[in-house]
Design brief:
Blueprint (H helix, E strand, L loop, with lengths): L2 H22 L2 H20 L15 H14 L4 H18 L6 H7 L19 H8 L7 H16 L3 H5 L6 E2 L6 E5 L5 E5 L2 H15 L11 E2 L3 E5 L2 H18 L10 H13 L4 H8 L4 H8 L3 H13 L21
Antiparallel strand pairs: 1-2, 2-3, 4-5
Helix pairs in contact: 2-4, 3-4, 4-5, 7-9, 7-11, 12-13
Length: 339
Amino acid sequence: MKKRDNAYKFANEFMKFMANSYERRSDYTSIGYKQSMTMFLDYAENVKKVKPSSFGLEYFTYDNLTEYMCWLRYEKDLSPQTCNLRMSQIIAFLKFVARDPHYRAIYMEASYVARFKVTVHDNIVGPLSKEAIKHLIATPDADTETGLKYTTMLTLLYSTATRISEILSLKISDIFLGEPTPYINVLGKGNRFRRLTLIKPVRKHLKSYIQKIHGENPDPNNYLFFSRCKGKNKKSSTRSVNKQINVYLSIARKKYPELPEHIHTHQFRHSMATHLIDDGVNVFSVSKFLGHKSVSTTMKYIGITPKMTEKAMTQIESTSSLQMPQKWKKPATLADLIK
């Protein structure tokens, strides 16, 4: 394969990877992938003096990636967490490329690159009370299109304890309101599907929203919560959703001052998980509901007290029985390969 072909292969694979990311991941995750690759290309070109014409997937060797990690940490003075994140995002791309057996060895070798040791700190997001949730969900005016959208979204976020990326990735085809027990299918971390049952209030809001916004015969390929500027085949961004929810928060705080000054969509997930534990649901069931791989993740995630942990473990024991390909142009810089 010619050097020019190597560069083209890399650019083409990264374009496919990003298209897949925009479809399945949150906007922030996709932006992170692009930033990490841009930084790696900057290092290759300006530090290692690699020419665009000679760059390719074969450059992602164990030695090159290890040197890059050291450069990030000691030359760019990035934190160990940030260095590890940058490397994980690059390896996510190589894992995508590894679907071609010819490049599987590159991914396997890269996966052995050592990470920096980090100090773990508590990073528990405080849950909202049930009363706070109630006031916040009641704030949007459901008689308007925007208000109906956010009433539906907030109700769905809380009742299903889903991540905002999972909610924004929902398409009409993922919603099954006509079933005896209505449900939605969500794609979570690790490409794991979960089927989540919809309670009556959520079904009511969803049905009203779909009929009013998507019509009587909605396109199954359209996003449930789409971008008002880009159209129904493009999902809303996490940033715009968080911004609008905080607008409603400032209004709700006038009636219920106990609400915090700022919230993030992830707090709805934390809140539902905490409320389930408070209501006596065993942590094993809550862990499965959240889509966590292990119960220990759920314990850390919620910030369970020792007393709650003892009770939960007792309960566990009792249950144990994007786009068309563009015409190739010779890149002037390595960064041009992923533009």
